[in-house]
Amino acid sequence: MVKTTKKSPEELELEALAAAAEQQAAETVVETPAQESAEPATLAKAGKRSAKSLAEAEEKQAKEERKAHADDEKAADKPKPAVKPARSRLERRGKNFRKAAEQIDKTKAYSLTEALELATKTSPVKFDASVELHVNLNVDPKQADQNIRDNLVLPAGTGKTVRIAVFDDQKIEGADLSGVETILKDLEKGAINFDVLVSTPAQMPKLGKYARLLGPRGLMPNPKSGTVTGDLAKAVSEAKAGRVEYRVDSTGIVHVAFGKVSFGAKKLEDNARAVLTSIKGNKPASVKSNYVKAIHIATTMGPSIAIATSEI
After folding, report:
1. How far apart are CA 153 and CA 226, in angstroms?
2. Conformational region of residue 256, where left means phi above 0, alpha means psi within -120 to 50, and beta covers everything else
3. φ/ψ bin of 254: left (φ > 0), alpha (ψ from -120 to 50), beta (otherwise)
4. Which letter does DSSP use for residue 228 in this model?
5. CB of 133 closer than 8 Å to CB of 297
6. CA separation for the pair 81, 117 (Å, rounded)
């Protein structure tokens, strides 16, 4: 007779769990490699492109490359147009200008007398051209003491008919327009019927309203230019006689017209020397090196002529 041993509840529970696990393992079907390969290959995992999508993208890229290659071959077969060499600046100018420029040696710095004689001969226009002086100075216009500015009366005049307005109720001989109310009415309409405006210091506050109209045109009276003065008669006579004002520009160059071709070389030389003397007299004390870099003269629409800097 076999003697049985009574099992505890814990051992019975463990045996039951082990039996359940063995039964579940027996019911589970293990997939073979053949079964795994039978799954459709077109399905993609999350975040990845399918094989079909990748094939379509590769085909599209290959098509674009074939098209680009065909375009390159087509462009290579076309004959390239002949590129004309760029013309020089002189070649692009008019016939009369080129003819005048042939008489000037660009490698030479002329004396003032020679340059003015050339200028009167080489003017390419049919009208009475102005003659301009361009002086390149070794100054910095941003510095207050190097902002060159002055006015002077040319010995032979400017050759221009100047309309002068006097912003005062005085009747001044030689003035083309005068009277405070008359000029204010014109300015209110935006009409400017003068080339030079002269005023007394007492009347200047009335012009403040029109500074934006007169300032950009260089017509605002200014004590430095001699157009704000108590001696109106003198200011008018000087303006009629041929007073010019010059001022260095932002690049350090003075530009001033000092006469007409019809003046002849002698009168033009007198005017030019007066301007050069004025510029020399305004040399700032802070400029220690060469004051003048270059000097050129030119007629309206004409070629420029270099002048030796020793002339100033």
Report:
1. 11
2. beta
3. beta
4. B
5. yes
6. 47
Long-range contacts made by residues 96-103, C-beta under 8 angstroms, separation at least 24? 96/124, 96/125, 97/124, 97/301, 97/302, 97/303, 99/124, 100/124, 100/302, 100/303, 101/303
- Predicted confidence pLDDT, tens digits, the chain (312 residues): 445 556 666 667 667 766 766 666 555 544 444 444 444 444 455 556 677 888 888 888 888 888 887 777 776 666 777 777 777 777 777 788 888 888 888 888 999 999 999 998 888 888 889 999 999 999 988 988 888 888 888 888 888 888 899 998 888 888 888 888 999 998 888 888 888 899 999 999 998 888 888 888 888 888 888 888 888 888 888 888 888 888 999 999 999 999 999 998 899 999 999 999 999 999 998 888 889 999 999 998 888 899 998 887
CB contact at 8 A, 306 and 295: yes
Give which of 173, 154, 299, 304 is closest to 241, Cα–Cα. 154
Question: What gap in Å lies between CA 10 and CA 13, rounded to an integer?
Answer: 5
**256: helix, strand or coil:** strand
Tell me the residue type at 179: G
Domains (range + CATH), the chain = 93-160+242-312 (3.30.190.20), 161-241 (3.40.50.790)
What residues have CB less than 8 Å from 229, skipping those under 6 apart? 198, 200, 201, 223, 235
The residue with tokens 């020397």 is 273
Burial-class residue 293 by CB neighbours within 10 Å (0-12, 13-18, 19+).
middle
